[in-house]
Structure formats: C-alpha cells, structure tokens
C-alpha cells in the first residue's frame, strides 16, 4: 500500500480541530494526577496560540529538534505503566510538514491505549502504525516554527522475556522499559527475522522526567537524578543530548562503582554473580575506547543488570542480561560500551543501515578483548537492512564480517592514520545521523590506498 495513502485520513486544519482523540474509557487516577501536576492543556476556551497554518503537504521528516517533558506512573505490583509526554518540536528540517511520526515500543509490546493526543492543546487525528504513533498536526508546520505534541497513554509491562518482550517487561524482579517515550522518528517496522534494532532517532537536547511509583524503587535511567521525595515515591531526572531514555527499576538493586578519569562507572544488579568482572570490563572498555575515539560524552556510565534477553545500548547506560554466560561477559560489555560512540554520539539508521553501529561496535569490542574470529556464515554483502538477513546469519555477517572488514581497513591504512580518522569522524558527526557511505568515504579519503576495492563488492548499493 502507498504509505501516503495511509495518512490521508489525517485531516487538514480546521476539520482536525473537531476530532476528539480521547477514548471513552476514563484515564487511570494516576495518569489524571500526573496530568494535573504537569499542567495539561486548558479547555477549548483557553487554547494556546499555535504556529500551525492552514493546509496540507502530506510530508514529514525526522530532521526535527524536540525536547520532552514526561511523567511516568509506574505500578511495580500490577505492571501498570502510564505515560503523559509533551514534546516541544522545532521544525529544523527546512521544509514544511503536516504530521510527525513518533517511535513507541509499547505500541507493539504494552497493550497500549492512547488516552489523549493533542497539538498545541487541540485534539488531532492520530493513528498507530506498528510501533509508530502518527500524529496529524491539523495543518502545516513551516520551517523554523514550533509545536507542542502531547501524547498520553496507558500500557502494561510484559511478564516474560521471550521474543522481544525483554524490551518492555517486569521479569526476574526487574522493570525494563526501552523506547517508551513517544520520540521523533520515522515509521519503521518492528518485526524482523533477527535481533536487529528497528530504530532511528535524532538527539534531543533535553528530557525532563518525573517518575511516580507505588513503592520505593531504585531507578536507573539515561538521565541524572535531580530530586527524590522523602517517601521515595517520586523521583525526577534530567537527560541532555540523548537519542532515547531507557528506564530500569527494581526495589532491591545494589550497586558498586569506580572512577575512570572523572566518569563514575556504576554497575547496578540484583544477582551479584560476576559483579566485579562486569564492573572491571566496563571500566576497561570505557578507558580503551576514549583513547581510541575521543572523550566519553557523559559524567556517569551505568551498567545495569536487565531482566533478560540481549545486551542493549542506551545513551549513558547499557543493559547486561540477567544470567548471561560468564564466558561472554567481557566481549558483551565492551560491545555495548562501544555503542556510546557509534549509535549514541554518532547516530545512524539502525534498521536499514546497521553496519555503521553494529560492525563498528563489534570491531571495537574485539579489538579491546582480542577475541577476533572468522564468520560462521558465507561471505555476504553488508549494505542490506535488518529485515533482509536471516536470524542465523545476521550476527555473523553484520557483526563478524563487518568488524573483520574494518580490521582489514585498519591494516591497510595503518593504525595511526586509521584511529585519527575515526576520532575526527566522531567529532565531526557528533549528535548527527550518518549513512554508511559517509563512514566509508571518510576512511577512503584519509588514505592513498584505494579502499573502494574492498568496499565495492561488499556494498553494491553504494558503489
């Protein structure tokens, strides 16, 4: 189906203003309290001014700058996970748009119910497409203009870690929530035949988060805690220059920490198995990666024992699954730590061009841990999307073959020139989204050796 046809129901300015987006079932008391506390939109008589202008262009973009003010009501006992989020979005793309597409994993995993969707306090048309909430703006947002998009939803955490449930669950005593804030993105299919990451998100300058819980919980997020109430039931966090904000919680998390330079490296856990090894691996990886790629961008680095599933990266935070094999720990911690540079600092389309972050993270992790090995699948191209690799060979091709190709590039360029080029690439592309060809071109342009001989057969889409 033509994607444009799917959005024709998003009404133009004027008509959209009469569309009610509040479902008939009432919101929970917790969400209503959060709504009042954060200053929800006034009734129609007091609508705020808007920079939306009449018309439609049937266009959106990911090249927007958004800050987020979010209230989460988390009920550990019942697994209720209810969110009230307001994104202040500035159209920095240079072109007019009439809708925004917001990534939201609970739309697939959390039995989500949209309670309110508003643009500048006005109810507008909205549509859930897979893991994406598509919000019609009720008109055109010109370049340079800004808008407030409020999304209020209720959901329920899963209770297992099978499939992709581990991204949004309360299992093994731990709450894991990944990509749970409605975040500017582009419509992307969630289902894939492997464990690839179906995400692409721009950096937000600021996320202000308030979490209200039914019991005192130790919360670990991608942000810095700025407040905790005397009873421990309300906490506030602030995250700056992040592509998403992950939340992990347990009533009985313990932690150990160490310093790497001025960065506090902390491991939070329920099970103490391998705790010293994990903390040591994280500190070693952070130290080694800074020497290779440049400074780590945050003041803290949290390593958190997650409920299960796979290791996963977030800005300033990584998940190491409950019960992971000790034989794989140092590689896994190093790989997820490497994502602090390739994915967090230098972003990419993880769904359609996974080479940039996954191949680079594998190369860096195996360089640190000296665990490079040959691929167990036949040689394949490295320029396909995650949807085009089998479950059995995605890792072996993108991670192993991709990382080995980068290692060959280092050998041909020479280590000094290679690491200097990577440091410059990271600095030049900090907080941006890059495509695979830009990385390949940066490497090729930095050496008299013709690297296109290596790249052409592996990246036919780009050569």
Give a short synopsis of this structure.
The protein is an alpha+beta fold. The protein is 24% helix and 29% strand. The strands form five sheets. Strands 5-4-8-2-1-12-15-14 form an eight-stranded mixed beta sheet.
Q: Please describe the biggest sheet, giving its number of strands, its sense, and whether it closes into a barrel.
A: 8 strands, mixed
Strand content: 25-35%
Count up the helices.
10
The strand order across the widest sheet is 5-4-8-2-1-12-15-14
Structural class: alpha+beta
If you average the pLDDT, what whole number results? 91
Low-confidence stretches: 1-45
- Label the overall shape: globular
Number of strands: 23
What is the helix content?
A: 10-25%
What radius of gyration results from the CA coordinates? 22 Å
What is the rounded distance between the termini?
Answer: 30 Å
Describe the structure.
Helices cover 24% and strands 29% of the residues. It has 10 helices and 23 strands. Strand 4 (113-119) and strand 5 (122-123) form a beta hairpin. Helix 4 (275-293) packs across helix 5 (329-338), helix 5 packs across helix 6 (355-369) and helix 7 packs across helix 8.
């Amino acid at each position: 189906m033509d994607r444009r046809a799917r959005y024709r129901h998003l009404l133009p300015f004027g008509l959209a203003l009469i569309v009610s987006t509040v479902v008939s079932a009432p919101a929970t008391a917790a969400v209503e309290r959060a709504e009042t506390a954060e200053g929800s939109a006034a009734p129609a008589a007091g609508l705020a001014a808007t920079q939306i202008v009449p018309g439609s262009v049937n266009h959106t973009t990911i090249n927007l700058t958004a800050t987020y003010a979010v209230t989460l009501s988390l009920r550990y006992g019942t697994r209720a996970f209810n969110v009230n989020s307001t994104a202040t979005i500035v159209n920095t793309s240079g072109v007019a748009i009439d809708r925004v597409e917001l990534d939201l994993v609970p739309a697939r995993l959390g039995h989500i119910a949209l309670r309110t969707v508003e643009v500048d306090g006005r109810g507008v048309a909205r549509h859930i497409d897979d893991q994406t909430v598509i919000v019609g703006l009720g008109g055109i947002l010109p370049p340079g203009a800004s808008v407030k998009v409020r999304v209020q939803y209720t959901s329920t955490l899963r209770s297992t870690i099978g499939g992709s449930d581990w991204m949004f669950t309360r299992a093994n005593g731990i709450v894991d929530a990944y990509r749970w804030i409605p975040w500017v993105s582009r419509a992307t299919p969630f289902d894939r035949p492997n464990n690839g990451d179906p995400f692409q998100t721009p950096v937000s300058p600021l996320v202000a988060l308030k979490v209200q819980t039914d019991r005192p919980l130790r919360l670990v997020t991608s942000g810095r805690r700025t407040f905790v109430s005397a009873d421990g039931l309300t906490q506030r966090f602030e995250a700056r220059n992040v592509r998403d904000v992950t939340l992990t919680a347990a009533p009985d998390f313990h932690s150990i920490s160490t310093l790497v330079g001025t960065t506090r490296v902390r491991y939070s856990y329920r099970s103490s198995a391998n705790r010293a090894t994990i903390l040591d691996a994280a500190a070693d990886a952070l130290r080694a990666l800074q020497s290779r790629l440049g400074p780590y961008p945050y003041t803290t680095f949290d390593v958190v024992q997650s409920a299960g599933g796979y290791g996963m990266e977030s800005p300033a935070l990584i998940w190491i699954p409950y019960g992971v094999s000790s034989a794989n720990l140092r590689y896994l911690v190093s790989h997820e730590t490497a994502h602090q540079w390739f994915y967090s600092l230098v972003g990419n389309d993880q769904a359609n061009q996974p080479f940039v972050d996954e191949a680079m993270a594998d190369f860096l992790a195996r360089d640190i841990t000296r665990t490079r090995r040959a691929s167990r699948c036949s040689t394949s191209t490295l320029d396909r999307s995650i949807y085009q690799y089998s479950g059995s060979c995605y890792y072996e091709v993108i991670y192993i073959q991709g990382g080995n190709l980068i290692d060959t590039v280092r050998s041909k360029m020479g280590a000094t020139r290679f690491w200097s080029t990577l440091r410059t690439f990271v600095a030049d592309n900090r907080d941006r989204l890059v495509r695979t060809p830009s990385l390949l071109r940066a490497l090729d342009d930095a050496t008299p050796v013709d690297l296109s001989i290596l790249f052409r057969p592996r990246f036919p889409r780009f050569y």
